[in-house]
Amino acid sequence: MVKTYAYGFPKLGKQREFKRLIEGFWAQKVTEEELREGIKELGQKREETYRKYVDAFPQGEMTLYDPMLDTALLFGVYKANSLEEYFELCRGKNALEMTKWFNTNYHYLVPDFEGREPAFKVCEPVWNRHEGATENVHIIAPFTFLKLSKGLPEGSFEGALKELTKALVDYVNSKGFKSVHLEDPALVMELSEEEWKALVEAYSLLSEVKGEVNLFTYYDSVDRLELLFELPVNGIGVDLVHDRGENLEQLKKIDPRGKKLFAGVVDGRNVWRNDLFKTAEVLRELSEKFDVVITNAAPLFHLPVSLEGATLPKELLQKVAFAEEKLKEIKLLAEILEGKEEEAREWVKGINNKFGEIKAVRERVSALKEEDFVRKPSYKERVKKQQEVLNLPLFPTTTIGSFPQTEEVRRVRLLYRKGKLDKESYETFIRGEIAKAIQIQEELGLDIFVHGEFERTDMVEFFAEKMKGIATTGNGWVISYGTRCYRPPIIYGDVERDGVMTVPEIAFAQSLTDKPVKGMLTGPVTIIAWSFVREDIPISEVAYQIALALKDEIRDYEEAGIKIVQIDEPAIREKAPIKKRNWKEYFDWAIKSFRLCHSSVKPETQIHTHMCYSEFGEIMEYILEMDFDVISIEASRSKGDIIEAFEKVNFDRQIGLGVWDIHSPYVPSAEEMKEIVERALRVIPKENFWINPDCGLKTRRWEEVIPALRNLVKLAGELRKETN
Ligand code: MET
Ligand SMILES: [Zn+2]
């Protein structure tokens, strides 16, 4: 009988209980006892869900914030003597840095060794996620833990890996765990010979573990899969969905050496139902050689908890599966292999329906020619025309788009969305907010205005609601970090505008001022990165469809007299494949989709883009090809590096390097902002330099925004004087 296994089920809870408990504790509305009790219950509910569908699953997966932090605490990299101290590390003044977890939209806390020689010591953490666990105990594997940490002294990786593996072995043996579930997704990265060698050497120590060890990889293929089968472990988990066929190819040649193969065949990252009978074929073939356990490919926490209560059209409901339904698919696969096909046949009945097809959109994309992706005239020529129209001073000042989403804004928007406020009153309210924002910008003396994005809940969901072919889920919440949730929309069909999306608000804002107001759009790559995307057509086509919808919107902006358009692409780096050898293919469509948005604008229309939350140094060459006129970029973390990167590529466009880190309530002085500018001006000519915050201001309060922007405008004034 084929065995089944699953891991990474969302910790959030159907009613977002996780969020309520933790945030309640922060607000001192939930006591520590209630928190511990509540989390325990939530953990039990998860286990019950697993048990309904699969034979086995990890224990001790539950965290109060992030598993990387839990691992760091377990091995003594940090100390927390109370839950307050634990959460200090997550969100306090000296919190760990947060960064994207591989190419997903989940952010983890980055352990930092700060250049110190690491020493690991098993600690009894204040939050012990392994309490009561005995089997398949969930731990982030040493290789992934160290690979994703920072600040290890040069040359110490190999030693640290051995030390940490030793500590792990001691821990597992001292607790007497029957088996452990080691998560090692970093093994799918492009690793050097030395790294593979270090891995094999360090993990040879796993032979001392008394219980069973299973090692899980996911998100891509493992380049040297055969090496994993030589390790002293009992089972290897591989991703057979996101591996471009590379894992499967290797498995054909690999000697199983008595190991179990955890075959990840049910997608943990996307919502589409599994083509069960096709998958069963693959499993059958693998079973001839391997002792196969059916499992998910990638942890399931990238998906909403369950379809129960989802408000989706029924044709779409027939095609999708959220986390709980993915568990069911694992079970159905096992049934097929045992000859029980009935329920599985029912399950896949609708998966290929053509819901959402719009022929005209398909034709429009297939008619695209190379020149449709090229803007004319060249930057050099058009910049002159733009300057004639805009007549901007040196160091133009602007903001990134959103202004504070106050309690009131959120309350009124919610009333409207729940149908408790009529459209007209809602629109009047939004206009009122826009008018206030324009007034404030006027008083501050900024050069380029924004309307404030008060009508937008989320920069992707807002557009999803305005486009045909994209569904929003109502309650399909997914954690993006800590307790922060978002609802990824589902791109299921051909995408087209359903009338204008943003023009009325922008045009209204423009009608109130003589200063240019920026049209504000979310770019195709970001819409794709933060949604679940259809897989029945190439992703490049999906991107071009979205680009064409945005292109139509930009044409309407121009007709409404808007002179500057900003197309935000904050997710462009995160969406890049884990392996660099796959970058070219990705950036090809990513860049072309951006260019398609703006290729037919008038020369005098100035195109901006905005990016944030990533390391841009290594993608600088690609960024340049997007052919924008101005880029604003968040760089609070690595100002130095990014400036160097600009120098290397000979950056000839205008740039606004964020001078205010908007992730903190701290209001920087003009002098502090100036430091950043001065460093940057050594590399970027002053004619090309804009002054702006790091990112949008929606999470800030007006009490911080007004003084900070006043300082920002003051700084621009001083810089102008100095250059005169
Ligand atoms: C994550 S990037 C955000 C850009 C958006 N225009 C804003 O200002 O909020
Ligand atoms: Zn941003």
From TrEMBL:
Its EC number is 2.1.1.14. Gene3D superfamilies: 3.20.20.210. 5-methyltetrahydropteroyltri-L-glutamate binds at K19, N105, R484, C485, W530. Binds 2 Zn(2+) ions per subunit. Residues 4-289 form the Cobalamin-independent methionine synthase MetE N-terminal domain. Belongs to the vitamin-B12 independent methionine synthase family. Catalyzes the transfer of a methyl group from 5-methyltetrahydrofolate to homocysteine resulting in methionine formation. This is 5-methyltetrahydropteroyltriglutamate--homocysteine S-methyltransferase. It comes from Phorcysia thermohydrogeniphila.
